[in-house]
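Quick log. Single chain, no ligands specified.
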Amino acid sequence: MNNNKIKTGLAWLAGLLLASIIIFFISQGATSTSTASASKDSTNLLQMFKSGAGAGRNDTFCALTTGPSNSCLGTPQALCSTDLDMAKIAWKYFENNYNPSTGLYNAADKYPSTTMWDTGSALAATIAARDFDLIDDKTFDERIRAMFKTLNSMELFNKEAPNKVYNTIKGEMVDYRNQPSPDGIGVSALDLARMVSWLNTLGCMHPKYAYPAKKSIERWDMKRLIKDGQMFGFYRDPATKNIVVAQEGRLGYEQYAGKIFRQLGYDQHVAATYNNEFRTSINIYDVPIAYDRRDPRDLGAYNYVVTESYAMDAIENGIDDENRPLLDNIYNVQKRRWEETGIITAVSEDNIDQKPYFLYNTIFTAGLPWNTTTDKGVRYDNLKTTSVKAALSMALLYPNDPYSKELVYTVSSAYDPDRGWYSGIYESGGGYNKAITANTNGIVLSMLLYKKYGEFYPMCKKCQREIKTAIIPAKTCDVCTTQ
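-> predicted structure:
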């Protein structure tokens, strides 16, 4: 009896042990299969994210966030390390003078005021900074969107177009002393043209901003600013406070701006050509220099023959049979002065770091060659400068001419590494002109962008990315019936 109980108990134990072993192996097999299946699923999921192959899609967020193809702009020319060092110095100015509340940059170092001209220069700098990887996509987008927010909400002079000056912190209309001016002080068509030029390049190189750029321009009522084939500006008469409409632009700047408005479809048959009725010329060092014969005593504005307008026309609007000889003469006459006098010559209008704080250093003005003057005609020949932006512009446009080496060598140290490029160097041995501005540093960056890609408007037109506004029907003729 006891033996039978023992045998029965052992049999039960053996059975339980065998069952446990069988269950264990079955369990292990199932786990192994499950793990293998899970591992296979994980591999497939990982592969899907890597390759983008899933649910019939062949793209990923990596591909979708990549910018548009700019292959139509042509093959970019590589910039050397010196180019990029120059760009970094120039961009330092804009790092120091950015106002995130408005997206605007100060026109002069640490002074919270700007014009549409200087905002155009700052926009050029921002486009170049992104292209040279001085800022990343997020920083670029934040700055451009902040600027558009201001452009599309800022108070317009007489509800027609941007005022001549704005406070860069508050975005409000001010006068030239940066004091609030609720009614504004006027409008400059030339300044608006520079803004249009760089809004066009922005929309071309970054098509997602083409529509905001177009809408910013379409806020402006241009009926009184462009007529009879010319440009007009507004100013408020100090005595009567009435708005005065006056023709704006003289040979050089007039053609730079007139071509830009013509590209939008406006009739600019007078302003957009250098061969208009107001052109005449004078020989300086046996080089024929074109200038505007309109009398400043009648119209209140001088014709300043300087480097900047011709250089900007070349890089932004393009070089053609009409402006090429004029540009050559602007370069050659300054080279000839250097050959005759030993003075490194590169002239333009510039801020200066002492009174009167802004001067036109010219090839020809008011009947005088090499005249340095205020906008009121007061001469300051003792404050002549070699302009950094003029020197670098000419050197980049004429890189194979020996004089270009002299120009770059002369101004290559005219900067503060923590603030940007100076405006120039005093000819008379007065040291650096340490005024630092958005325009000088913006032109340095835009010239380097030109070196990389070439002429901006022709490049964008080739890509069919130029701005087309709904302001008036587009016209292709140079001589059109005045609207």
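The chain has 15 helices and 22 strands.
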